[in-house]
From TrEMBL:
Residues 1-37 form the signal peptide. Pfam families: NMT1_2. The keyword Isomerase does not apply. It comes from the Bacteria. This is ABC transporter substrate-binding protein. Keywords: Signal. PANTHER family: ABC TRANSPORTER SUBSTRATE-BINDING PROTEIN, ALIPHATIC SULFONATES-BINDING PROTEIN-RELATED. Gene3D superfamilies: Periplasmic binding protein-like II (3.40.190.10).
């Protein structure tokens, strides 16, 4: 675990970072994305077990394998970023071709590029519960957070964790109060937020996390679950991969190789959790015990699949509260309709 984040009271830098990110996002909407040539693909991922399918794809060189089946030698470039805003900026600026982020950032970028770059999801990365955890014993529900608390999440107002928190707030206080807790949230990468929550002693008393960071935090007896995303939507796909319409159309063989590689990785991870755990440790160099990791992955609520599940309730909510302008009629509006995934929600 990295050293505790040297953190709050230095909240100002989060505000500055957020403002810069939003500015970059706005400017990138005006700049044309530069598509890579057929035979090249640049992929941006974030942190956590939810990106394990990409670890398998990378470790087994599956894109290259399926590219060769199409008579194509594919060059694959990998990068790691934190937060949906940074991911969206990278995609729209043409720095990456495939973006990995939550359903929240997907719906934001789908809405803002509607009729232009037409960004849509390629596939899900699986179904996983996300926990909002806290080390403040007074916080039993989201209604208990006060001005003295700060909640870490990957990107304020954009990340899927932020959107889940807004959905929960609307459920409790009504749609007009959907952003009631936004003022308590700060953008902190999952590893740093986990370390800070475990160490305690800062204003950071909450973290809307993802696996394995939420499970690592819960090993501390002072940390407890405040909210489970499955309580909001049931089993759902929180994290997806998305791309511009131009990349998909201009690079059909590369795109197909990527989709086929991801489907093979999902089948591998779901059938052999032990091998999947080994892959995660090998690729990410994560400092987590293999037995502990395997216990997390063996959670029956985890499912590695490219087929999206229960993403539409969040999309409908975001339109209802005005967070996105365009209302999708179904999940098919913001997912490319390829051979895989075949059925979703």
């Amino acid at each position: 675990m990295p050293a505790p984040f040297a953190l709050l009271p230095k909240l100002g830098r989060f505000t500055t970072t957020l403002g810069l990110s939003l500015s970059l996002f706005a400017s990138s909407l005006l700049a044309p994305a530069t598509a890579q040539a057929e035979g090249e693909i640049r992929i941006a991922e974030q942190f956590g077990i939810v990106y394990l399918l990409l670890n398998v794809v990378r470790d087994q060189h599956l894109i290259e394998k399926h590219g060769k089946a199409e008579g194509l030698d594919i060059k694959v470039d990998w990068t790691q970023l934190s937060g949906g805003s940074a991911i969206n900026d990278a995609l729209l600026s043409g720095s990456v071709d495939i973006a990995g982020a939550g359903v929240g950032p997907l719906l934001t970028i789908w809405d803002r590029t509607y009729g232009r770059q037409n960004v849509k999801a390629v596939a899900s990365l699986g179904n996983f519960p996300y926990y909002l955890v806290s080390n403040n014993p007074k916080v039993k529900t989201i209604a208990d957070f006060t001005e003295q608390d700060r909640i870490a999440l990957p990107a304020v107002g954009v990340s899927v964790q932020s959107r889940y928190l807004q959905y929960a707030a609307a459920k409790l206080w009504g749609d007009k109060e959907f952003n009631r807790l936004d003022k308590y949230t700060v953008a902190v990468p999952h590893p740093d937020a986990t370390a800070a929550l475990i160490a305690g002693g800062t204003e950071l008393t909450g973290h809307f996390s993802n696996p394995p960071f939420q499970e690592q935090a819960l090993e501390n007896p002072n940390v407890h679950v405040v909210l489970n995303s499955y309580d909001l939507f049931g089993p759902n796909s929180p994290t997806v991969l998305f791309a511009t319409e131009k990349f998909r159309n201009d690079n059909p063989k590369t795109y197909k190789a990527f989709v086929e590689a991801l489907a093979e990785a999902a089948d591998f991870a779901q059938k052999d959790k032990g091998a999947a755990a080994d892959t995660y440790l090998r690729v990410t160099k994560a400092k987590i015990d293999r037995a502990a990791l395997l216990k997390i992955i063996d959670n029956p609520q985890f499912e590695f699949t490219v087929t999206p599940k229960n993403t539409y309730p969040l999309a409908e909510f975001l339109h209802r509260v005005g967070a996105i302008k365009h209302k999708p009629e179904s999940w098919k509006d913001y997912f490319f309709q390829d051979a895989k995934p075949l059925q979703g929600s």
